[in-house]
Design brief:
10-stranded mixed β-sheet; binds calcium ion; about 35% helix; binds beta-D-ribofuranose; 12 strands; single chain; alpha/beta
Length: about 300
């Protein structure tokens, strides 16, 4: 069982990935959820993180990152995630998760410092916190097993023609992470757009459990944004990065040297050089779509 830290900005698909991690407690011991300014304000997405954990009565510690990306101003994505950053659920829950008195980066560093075995990081939002960790605590980085991240895309963008949202919000942070030398698995739009969940796929979960109901209500809202991206179902961006950690055999990828464009109209674009002898990232390009969707649904079902 590996220790896991989830850095995220919930977010409908972040919430799904958190549920998946908790459903796979035989494989992963979720040690902390850290929040990063992404989909919405830090305050709102942190509240959402507590909510999701509390739906399944988790006592995991939640720590906040800074209110802004390293250089950019925050970019709110209310169009796809709603005013709360995670619109949809109607279930009321009592908070069981713990509000950390440390910052996101301090909590990550403490977990790494004390870890007997290497720790996995799942990064589902802009890479601000991970970049700050890399810069502030180089002495603990050898304790990181790998970083599985949702971000970027070698094909195209979703917030500009070139850039994907998570990388676009904090490109400087992303460049720090890609050039860190740490083992990185990148689930970008190339692969995440291959995995969709349709309404008829998740409907059976609605009456199954609290987590099932919350998941169905999250998806009911999230699916409304799909046509804007030419999708019919709910596109499972963040869950792909967790599904990879659960079962790598469902994915195919290639080693590449990835860098992030920082200037001009392509700012925030991830560029992959597959010929480089200095590969820094395993770029996931293909998923067994139905199987990955099944892992997601079965995870929620098991909670
Ligand atoms: C990414 O942006 C957010 O809206 C999602 O949660 C995901 O992390 C997709 O571009
Ligand atoms: Ca996210």
């Amino acid at each position: 069982r590996k220790d896991l830290i989830i850095d995220c900005d919930p977010g409908h698909d972040d919430a799904t990935a958190i549920f998946m991690a908790l459903a796979h407690s035989d494989q992963y011991n979720l040690r902390a959820v850290t929040t990063v300014c992404g989909n919405n304000t830090l305050e709102k997405i942190t509240k959402n993180a507590h909510y999701i954990l509390s739906v399944v009565k988790s006592e995991v510690e939640v720590a906040k990152g800074p209110e802004t990306p390293l250089i950019n101003e925050p970019i709110i994505s209310a169009e796809f995630h709603g005013d709360s950053g995670m619109d949809g659920p109607t279930l009321e829950v009592e908070t069981t998760s713990k509000d950390s008195d440390k910052s996101a980066v301090e909590l990550m560093a403490d977990i790494l410092r004390d870890a007997k075995e290497k720790v996995t990081i799942l990064a589902l939002g802009p890479l601000t916190n991970v970049a700050l960790l890399i810069k502030a605590y180089p002495q603990y980085l050898h304790k990181i097993e790998r970083i599985s991240l949702m971000g970027g895309g070698v094909c195209h963008g979703n917030i500009t023609p070139y850039a994907e949202f998570n990388i676009y919000v904090d490109p400087e942070a992303a460049q720090i992470v890609f050039s860190s030398g740490l083992p990185i698995v990148m689930c970008g739009l190339d692969v995440t757009e291959q995995v969709e969940i349709l309404k008829e796929d998740y409907e059976y979960l609605r009456k199954h459990s609290d987590a099932g109901r919350v998941f169905a209500e999250l998806m009911d809202f999230y699916i409304k944004g799909s046509p804007a991206f030419g999708a019919t179902g709910c596109v499972m961006h963040d869950p792909c990065a967790m599904a990879y950690l659960i079962d790598e055999s469902l994915f195919e990828g290639k080693q590449a040297r990835v860098h992030v464009d920082l200037v001009g109209e392509t700012r925030g674009r991830t560029v992959a050089d597959y010929e480089s002898h200095e590969a820094n990232t395993f770029v996931i390009l293909k998923a067994k779509s139905n199987e990955v969707a099944n892992v997601i649904l079965k995870s929620i079902e098991s909670l």
